[in-house]
Every structure is written in C-alpha cells, then in structure tokens.
Design brief:
By secondary structure, the protein is an alpha+beta fold. The chain is built from six helices and six strands; from the N terminus they run ααββββαβααβα.
C-alpha cells in the first residue's frame, strides 16, 4: 500500500522530469510551453507577484493555527505572453530583488544582475488564481481580448525532481517486494494426525 501511494504521488512529476527541460531564456526566445512541460534554468525577468499563498493547520475543535506564508505567484514574461511561477517562501526575497531589477531594466536598459535557478512542472491555473492573474494583467493595461489571446493561463510549480525520483524509486522497490512476497510459495505441512487416527 505504501509503495502504491508513493507511486501515485510521484509518478506524474517523475515522468515530467524525464522530458528535456525548457529554460526561461528559451521561453523568451519563443519556445512554447504547455501543461506537463519540464522547466529548468535561471529566472532572468520577473514582473512582481499577482497572488500569495499561506498555509495553516485546522484543529479538530474547529479552530486553526495562524497562517504561515508559503510562497508567491509571480508573472514571468515569455515571447508569446506571460506564465505564472509559484515560488517557495525561501525564494521570495531573491525574486523580489529580480522584480525590482526587471522594472529598472525596463526604464534604464540596465540588465538585471540577480538571478535564481528554478525547476518545476507547468500546470494549468485554476480557481481564484486565474482571476488574480487576469486582474494583474488588466492593471498592466492589457484588454480582455489581449489576455484571452495569450491562451490558457499556465503556472510553473516548483518541484524538487531529485526528491520525486527518490520517492518513485522507493515506491517501485516496495511494490516489487510486495509482489515477490505474494508470489512465494509456502509449503506448509500440518503436524496433526488424520481425523481417523485421533482417539474417540
């Protein structure tokens, strides 16, 4: 069961990790990305974040713990439009610095000097996140038709593919071990006498 759970959780990202990675620079040069694309490389330009995420613990009595920041959703420019980037909280400070450098580059032409390496899987945005994405683009001056022309809103979710590969390997080993145990033949010989040999 544990092996099956690990395979179920890690299989989608494991197969994404086997695909050739598309860099952020390649996206700026016109390389298309879609749901399931493997993205890896240095983030060069960032246009601020349009949503933030926090987590909390729901207790059995109905109360909950205080919210804890767990990352932001940044807007990344591509040749065809924009794509979202979900960061870890540990990367927020660096990405905020790149945001400042990006806007400075747009005004002065001085290239950003700060970069950060990110790796993840492209997924389709859903829920209220799409609304925040569209609101941000509207505030930037894009019309509804222009936003629609960008295509389905996508987001790059940070993934530690090393951890995914380890989980997948452990899952395979556990499932293989379970199959091996089930397939073994046990020769069981009872030490009891036959019924007709028993007294009375």
């Amino acid at each position: 069961v544990m092996g099956g759970v690990l395979l179920f959780q890690s299989a989608p990202d494991f197969f994404v990790s086997l695909k050739p990675a598309v860099s952020f620079a390649a996206m700026l040069e016109g390389k298309e990305v879609k749901a399931g694309t493997h993205v890896a490389g240095d983030v060069i330009y960032v246009l601020d974040y349009f949503a933030s995420e926090s987590t909390y613990t729901q207790r059995q009595d109905g109360s909950r713990s205080g919210s804890r920041a767990s990352g932001n959703y940044y807007l990344i420019p591509t040749a065809e439009g924009f794509v979202g980037l979900k960061s870890r909280q540990a990367d927020v400070a660096t990405l905020n610095t790149i945001t400042v450098d990006t806007f400075s580059y747009m005004e002065t032409g001085i290239e950003p000097v700060t970069t950060i390496r990110m790796e993840g899987s492209v997924k389709v945005m859903d829920g209220t996140l799409v609304n925040y994405y569209k609101e941000y683009l509207t505030d930037m001056g894009y019309t509804e038709s222009e936003i629609t022309a960008f295509g389905d809103p996508l987001v790059i979710q940070y993934v530690s593919f090393t951890a995914v590969r380890v989980m997948f390997a452990i899952g395979v080993v556990l499932v293989a071990l379970a199959v091996l145990i089930l397939c073994r033949r046990y020769n069981y010989k009872s030490g009891l006498k036959k019924a007709e040999d028993l007294p009375g």
